[in-house]
Structures are given as structure tokens and as C-alpha cells.
């Protein structure tokens, strides 16, 4: 089991490579959009390391990825429409449920409760895309609140059946998930999928096509209840894991209680 959950993908990024990337994209830095992106992705040097690791320390490829993400954020990242947020949230099976023993953000997704057919019939792809971007922005905030720690994602597939394998919904999900690969790179520490039935192989064959090699290598798929693995990865006692997994997190699935309150804007000072 230790070999399955070890972290063989940790990459050391030399400071001179970071400096080389910053010099390559110097023309894009210094703007308000660039400052916002750097802060959202963990600050300097964490932001730049994300792009370099995602592109195997290739400075040219990392600079292209950084520019693409800067354009993406300036065009698509904005406060979500409250109506869209409410509409999609009730279909979203994920929740930010706390922290691992060593302080990593912890997300829990009950796939068995997902209704892909209902989702596909009710929510447009643009609405789903908007909510996913909103969710990923929340994920960045959780990472920053945890000193830049990557997220541990756990997926319970209990109850997953053939009736949930709606091909249109799965393909939409795969297209939207690609946003995470392209613009929220290196956010994942470990992904544990447990209670996986044989039917999951069909869904995985579609979804895994948009996942890069590093993400697939960080993903562990188990047919059992995964408790032994969860104890090892999360560093929590079994009774605490059971409490977290059995709790209804609908009252705060975004995990706002785990985040610091946003700063209160300072009113302008009038000069008489």
C-alpha cells in the first residue's frame, strides 16, 4: 500500500529556471491581470513553478501555457451569476470538507449521487463551465489558505450504475474538466477513487482522455471501501474519516467556513 500512495512525482524546480521563465514572459508581467493571476495561483514563485512542472521544466512551453492562462483568466474568470450558481450547485456532487492531518485541503465527491441525465437535461454546458470555473477558483483559495498545499480529492462511487453513464453528460464533463488541466495546473496532490464498480471502467475511458500523465499517476482507483488507503493519505483516524464521509455537507459544500473572510473594502477618503 505504501508504494501506491507515495509521491514519486514531486518535482524540484531550480530558481534559475523560474528566473528564466519570468524573463521569457516579462512583457506580460506587471499588469493588474498578471498580478491577480500570480496571487491566485499561490504567489511568486509558486505560480511560476506550476507552469514549469506542468510542462516538464520546458521554459518555452511553460511560457505559452502561462500566456494562455492569463488570457483565459482575463476573459472568463469573473464572479459567477448567483442564479447560475444556485442552479448548478444542486447538481454538483462535490464538497470541500476540511483538511488532512498535515494541512492539505480535502474535497469529497459522492459520484453515486450524481444524476448525469438530469444534469444534462437541466444545465447548459456554459452554465456548467461557469460553475466549474467558480469551483476551481474556490479550490485556489483553499490552497492559498493552506500555504499553497495541493488538494487531496476523494471520490465515493458507491451506488454508481449503468443508468448513470449518460454519454452526452460524460463528454460534457470531460470537456469542462479540461479547463482544470489547462489553467489550474498542479492543484492535485492525490486523487483516491473508492468503491469503484466494474461499470466505472466505461466512464473512466471517457474522462481519462483529458487527464495528463501526472494526474493519472496521482489517481488511485480501488474497488474496496478505501479506508486503509484513506487513513494513510489523510493521516486521520478511521472514526474521523467515517464522520467526514457520512456527514451531509450540503450546508457548506464550498467550504467557506474553512476560508478566511474576504477583506472589507476600504471606503475612499473624501478630501474637503
Please tell me how large the radius of gyration is: 19 Å
Measured distance between first and last alpha carbons: 70 Å
Instruction: Tell me the number of structural domains.
Output: 2
The CATH homologous superfamily of the largest domain corresponds to: CRAL-TRIO lipid binding domain
Instruction: Give the overall shape.
Output: globular
CATH class designation of the largest domain: Alpha Beta
Query: Could you spell the SSE succession in H and E letters?
Result: HHHHHHEEHHEHEHHEHH
| Biggest pleated sheet | 5 strands, mixed
Coarse structural class: alpha/beta
Identify low-pLDDT runs.
1-8
Mean pLDDT: 89
CATH third-level topology of the largest domain: Phosphatidylinositol Transfer Protein Sec14p
Description:
The protein has 272 residues and is α/β, with parallel strands linked by helices. It folds into 2 domains: 12-76, Helicase, Ruva Protein, domain 3, CATH 1.10.8; 82-256, Phosphatidylinositol Transfer Protein Sec14p. The protein has helices at 2-5, 15-24, 32-40, 46-54, 59-76, 82-89, 116-122, 125-145, 167-183, 200-207, 213-217, 227-234, 238-246; strands at 94-99, 105-110, 151-156, 188-194, 219-221. The protein is globular. Mean pLDDT is 89; it is low at 1-8.
